[in-house]
């Protein structure tokens, strides 16, 4: 065991849902740490209405300064986009030309390999050289030569051709996606250098999904909802039902996960889903789940901020917010491999801070199953309620490629087993009674308060892992097939026989960038024919 840890000299940890944090562990020394924060502006309902009905004004001008809420936004989220777009981009043409160059260079090697594309290859090469020449001594739009427009247009056409799959589509598409797998430093470099990755990033939270959320919210206030929930209130607290929990801001993802669970369960009427979301998404979620039904399953949407405001234990404003599952990209440098294969990447998903409120959020319940919103369920899961977990608190899939000892630069305590494996969120079985008895939440909170120098979100990894040390019941591998958000090499057979699929990684199934071969397993359970989806261009 010890050997294996020594082999990996450096681990780079990246919090992928924001891509704002970079941590490097080199032989136990912690490295750079960048962080940017944006303030979320309060959108009042009235102005949101205008933003939707008006000409898609993107909401930024309706922002008000009062009640500012810190919002560490996802790399590429709508909000980040709107904040950045308040400023006009300088030297936009130069940036655009650089984007083109970047794209063309990225595609060139795969095009050059194709048969019968010699002419196109030559053409592409020529365009690349011309762009390079033009940009070699130009940093500002004002310095561009007069013929830039012609070059820009030509290159545009060439790139269109590449993208339209006229030439060897799958190769090219794959190359483009690999760009997302750049290390954080590279990505940062490129976002500064050009607008390309920045725009690519914006696509990671498609505007269409934001539109959906807005439409649903407006509709919620316009129409009287059926209030189906009131009728089911008793069920929500009755331990005799199978209770599932999810923390989510993404209505479409949550809906798809829930639908897959209901469709594949032997008795959907015995299922209760508890969806916890934030103020910004609450009304959209509520309206959606009132409109849609999932066989006989019951869905209960809660605004976690409302709950936390009432709770005495949650004092700071920051803590009241929704902190859903966090994902970290871990890059290993395995120096015992040949140079080309030294880098290995895994995505580790861990509980966010909101998960630690579970015993309090569901006071009448004991066993619950927590699902992440990037999961698809393919089998009946009710046997998870019969699983004998002994005295363990949480059932989870373990990953022994990374061990706790390798994260020691981020952990204050010394009192832990350096050899213990990390585990994944995604599908977790939880014993809330034991959790309460052991006081895990308050231990976790204390450890959070001790050290505030590290970012709150970044802490989720070591803290979450430490909190459940020795309390993990390892779930069999057949319960979860993970990696569908980044690993191209998963076989159809493995996917089809798995009880659940986890799209951990950056290529979430609801994005354009999703891995093509894995999309259908998700789409199968996506609602179609919902009016708002058509209006928002979601197909
Ligand atoms: C936004 O501002 C309005 C008043 O301007 C206030 O009533 C409302 O509670 C605020 N909403 C949030 C989510 O802070
Ligand atoms: C690193 O490479 C060695 C040699 O190929 C291999 O035995 C080991 O399992 C690798 N470690 C990890 C964590 O992949
Ligand atoms: C659930 O999935 C089925 C297909 O498996 C689909 O026909 C149905 O529209 C989906 N329902 C919802 C509410 O998403």
Folded structure, characterized:
This protein has 539 residues and is an alpha/beta fold. The protein has 2 domains: 2-203, no CATH class; 207-535, Spore Coat Polysaccharide Biosynthesis Protein SpsA, Chain A, CATH 3.90.550.10. The chain contains 23 helices and 17 strands. The strands form 4 sheets. The protein has a 7-stranded mixed beta sheet with strand order 8-7-6-11-14-13-15. The protein has a 5-stranded antiparallel beta sheet with strand order 3-2-1-9-10. A 3-stranded mixed beta sheet has the order 12-17-16. The longest helix is centred in the N-terminal third of the chain and has 22 residues, at 92-113. The chain is globular and about 70 Å long. 40% of the residues are buried. Residues 1-87 and 180-206 have low confidence and may be disordered.
Helix content: 40-55%
- What is the level-2 CATH architecture name of the largest domain? Alpha-Beta Complex
* Structural domain count: 2
Tally the helices.
23
Can you give the mean pLDDT? 72
Sheet with most strands: strand arrangement:
8-7-6-11-14-13-15
CATH secondary-structure class of the largest domain: Alpha Beta
Q: What small molecules accompany the polymer chains?
A: 2-acetamido-2-deoxy-beta-D-glucopyranose
Please give the alpha-carbon distance between the first and last residues. Answer: 48 Å
Principal-axis shape: globular
Rg of Cα set = 24 Å
**What portion of residues belong to β-strands?**
15-25%
Residue runs with pLDDT of under 50 for 5 or more positions: 1-87, 180-206
In the CATH hierarchy, the third-tier topology of the largest domain is known as Spore Coat Polysaccharide Biosynthesis Protein SpsA, Chain A
Main sheet characteristics: 7 strands, mixed
Task: Classify the secondary structure makeup into a structural class.
Answer: alpha/beta
Beta strands, count: 17
> What would CATH call the homologous superfamily of the largest domain?
Spore Coat Polysaccharide Biosynthesis Protein SpsA, Chain A
EC number: 2.4.1.-
Pathway: Glycan metabolism; pectin biosynthesis
Keywords: Cell wall biogenesis/degradation, Glycosyltransferase, Golgi apparatus, Signal, Transferase
Protein name: Hexosyltransferase
């Amino acid at each position: 065991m010890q050997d294996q840890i020594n082999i990996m000299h450096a681990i780079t940890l990246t919090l992928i849902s924001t891509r704002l944090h970079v941590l490097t562990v080199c032989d136990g020394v912690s490295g750079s740490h960048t962080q940017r924060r944006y303030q979320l502006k309060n959108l009042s309902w009235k102005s949101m209405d205008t933003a939707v009905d008006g000409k898609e004004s993107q909401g930024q001008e309706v922002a008000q300064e009062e009640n500012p809420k810190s919002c560490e936004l996802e790399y590429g989220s709508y909000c980040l986009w709107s904040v950045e777009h308040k400023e006009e981009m300088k030297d936009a043409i130069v940036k655009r030309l650089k984007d083109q160059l970047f794209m063309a260079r990225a595609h060139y090697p795969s095009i050059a390999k194709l048969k019968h594309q010699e002419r196109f290859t030559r053409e592409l090469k020529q365009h690349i050289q011309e762009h390079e020449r033009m940009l070699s001594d130009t940093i500002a739009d004002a310095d561009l030569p007069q013929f830039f427009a012609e070059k820009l247009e030509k290159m545009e056409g060439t790139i269109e051709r590449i993208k339209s799959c006229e030439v060897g589509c799958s190769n090219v598409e794959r190359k483009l996606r690999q760009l997302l797998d750049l290390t954080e430093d590279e990505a940062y470099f490129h976002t500064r250098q050009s607008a390309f990755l920045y725009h690519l990033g914006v696509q990671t939270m498609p505007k269409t999904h934001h539109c959906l959320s807005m439409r649903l919210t407006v509709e919620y206030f316009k129409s009287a909802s059926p209030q189906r929930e009131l009728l089911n209130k008793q069920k929500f607290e009755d331990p005799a039902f199978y209770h599932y929990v999810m923390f989510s801001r993404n209505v479409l993802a949550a809906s798809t996960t829930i639908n897959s669970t209901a469709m594949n369960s032997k008795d959907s009427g015995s299922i209760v889903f508890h969806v916890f979301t934030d103020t910004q998404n609450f009304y959209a979620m509520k309206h959606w789940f009132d409109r849609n039904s999932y066989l006989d399953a019951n869905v209960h949407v809660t605004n976690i901020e409302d709950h936390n405001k009432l709770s005495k234990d949650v004092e700071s404003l920051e803590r009241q917010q929704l902190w859903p599952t966090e994902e970290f990209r871990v890059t290993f440098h395995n120096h015992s491999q040949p140079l080309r294969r030294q880098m290995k990447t895994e995505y580790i998903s861990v509980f966010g801070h909101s998960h630690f409120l579970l015993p309090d959020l569901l006071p009448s319940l004991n066993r619950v199953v927590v699902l992440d919103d990037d999961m698809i369920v393919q089998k009946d899961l009710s046997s998870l309620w019969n699983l004998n977990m002994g005295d363990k608190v949480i059932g989870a899939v373990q990953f022994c490629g990374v061990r706790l000892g390798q994260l020691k630069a981020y952990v204050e305590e010394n009192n832990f087993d350096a050899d213990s494996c990390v585990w994944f969120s995604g599908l977790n079985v939880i014993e809330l009674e034991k959790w309460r008895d052991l006081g895990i939440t308050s231990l976790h909170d204390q450890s959070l308060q001790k050290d505030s120098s590290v970012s709150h979100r970044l802490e989720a990894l070591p803290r979450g892992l430490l909190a459940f040390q020795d309390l993990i019941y390892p779930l069999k591998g057949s319960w979860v097939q993970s990696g569908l958000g980044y690993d191209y090499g998963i076989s159809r057979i493995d996917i089809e026989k798995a009880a659940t699929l986890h799209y951990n990684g950056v290529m979430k199934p609801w994005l354009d960038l999703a891995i093509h071969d894995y999309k259908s397993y998700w789409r199968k359970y996506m609602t179609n024919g919902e009016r708002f989806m058509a209006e928002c261009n979601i197909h």
